[in-house]
Specification:
mainly alpha
């Protein structure tokens, strides 16, 4: 999930920076041995997060009506996946997100279809 967020909460930084922690919790947990290149690739950045989202867009697009819908969905997901709760939108704020508002409007518009 950190790959999608692009930032570590400050309390996580010492653990994330520890190569021993990465070795123990990362690839080693899957039976692989980490190399120095793996440690470098474990860095967290917004550039890497953007690349992760770019790679997921084709899958997310399958459920979207158009590019604007896809952009609003990605914005919605990124807002909800903020790791630091004090920086994450509240439930009331996220309920007013444009992507959800559009979905609610579509349901209202087609409510007779959904009831059948």
């Amino acid at each position: 999930m950190v790959d999608l967020v692009g930032r570590l909460p400050p309390l996580w930084a010492p653990y994330w920076a520890s190569q021993e922690y990465l070795q123990k919790q990362g690839m080693a947990a899957r039976g692989a041995v980490m190399t120095s290149a793996d440690y470098h690739n474990a860095d967290v950045s917004m550039t890497k997060a953007d690349a992760e989202w770019t790679g997921r867009r084709p899958y997310l697009k399958l459920g979207c009506s158009d590019e604007n819908d896809l952009e609003r969905l990605v914005d919605f997901l990124r807002a909800m996946l903020v790791l630091n709760p004090s920086e994450r939108p509240s439930a009331n704020e996220i309920a007013k997100h444009p992507w959800l508002m559009e979905v609610a409007e579509a349901v209202d518009t087609h409510s007779d279809t959904f009831r059948q």
